[in-house]
Amino acid sequence: MKTYTVLLTGLGHVGLNFLRILRQKEPVLTRQYGLALKIIGVADSSGILTDPDGLDLDRVIDHKEQKQGVGTLGQTGISALQLVNDTAADFLLDATPSDLRTGQPGLDLARLALSQGKHVVLASKSPLVHAYGELAALSRPAAQLRFSGAVCGAMPTVNVGRRDLPAAAITRIEAILNSTTQVILTLMAQGSSYESALVEAQRLGVAEPDPSLDVDGWDTANKLVIVANAVLNIPARLDDVVVRGIRSVEPHGEQWALLGLIERVGEGYRLSVEPVRLPSDHPLARLGKDEMGIVYTTDIYGQIAVTSAKQGPAGASAGMLRDVIDIHHTSQSS
């Protein structure tokens, strides 16, 4: 049995769901994987709560469900960065909402934790978009970096490309990576206008009050940059992606999708995000309005497709647990 000490920064939907999943899966982790996670510190915008003997997770969950910050149980005015800097632990799990323009605060949290020798699991994509190469360079056997939940939550978007296609030449990656646009375009194919489809998506809780990040294609572009870096090992940046959103699409009864595409062109790759009408026999054309998917086209494995139904924040939380287990396996075998 291996017990790991863990810091969790960010206790919004993803972080709180992670604690719920951990409580549910503790017996499985012990019995099947021979590991236990002892949460010794948590942080949210109100402050931090620590206990070297392990926090009472039921108490933390109940407190957050009552819309209370953990600082009122511990220390107010202490930042997540200070918690990471001052607390020895095996893992940092970061679920803070990070700014897509700067990658912060998750970027500095990941930098610090990796430099201190902590394993890092990220649920946010923005630190990876801004500094994937830097963070990957800081990762090593004693301080590993994982982020499978940052790109479409529970769907193993990156894992399949990195782990399951060894020795393959990947010539094309096609992906539907944004659930908001998938819902809107599906409703439009059924006869709704863009405006009414957006209102319905907002009513369902799928679209944000300001949906521009999704409908203008930038959420997909961010995820595509991570896939390009992590799977193809190319130093892609947002500026490399040709992006066109869905505001001007007129489906006329046909199913369209906002497609993220990475295609081999000569010795390099072209990255794009744009609405397209998929052929009926395309693997992604069969997706429902609550589904996302990715298709890898390779030389020796052929075409590999992975899809996932939308799971909300719980999918990203489950992805974080998957990453912890993966690091455990890797550490035990090294």
Can you walk through the features of this model?
- The protein folds into 2 domains: 2-154 and 313-333, NAD(P)-binding Rossmann-like Domain (Rossmann fold); 160-309, Dihydrodipicolinate Reductase, domain 2 (2-Layer Sandwich).
- With 334 residues, the protein is of the alpha/beta class.
- It is globular, with a radius of gyration of 20 Å.
- The longest helix is centred in the first third of the chain and has 21 residues, at 13-33.
- The mean pLDDT is 95.
- Strands 4-3-2-1-5-6-7 form a 7-stranded mixed beta sheet, sandwiched between helices.
- The chain has helices spanning 13-33, 57-65, 80-86, 106-115, 126-138, 157-163, 179-189, 194-203, 212-215, 218-232, 313-333, and strands at residues 2-9, 35-44, 47-50, 75-76, 91-94, 119-122, 145-146, 170-176, 241-243, 256-265, 268-277, 291-298, 303-309.
Summarize the structure.
The protein is of the alpha/beta class. The chain has eleven helices and 13 strands. Helices cover 38% and strands 24% of the residues.
Instruction: Work out the number of β strands.
Output: 13
Counting helices, strands and paired strands, the structural category is alpha/beta
Q: Provide the CATH top-level class of the largest domain.
A: Alpha Beta
Helix and strand string, N-terminal first? Answer: EHEEHEHEHEHEHEHHHHEEEEEH
Strand content: 15-25%
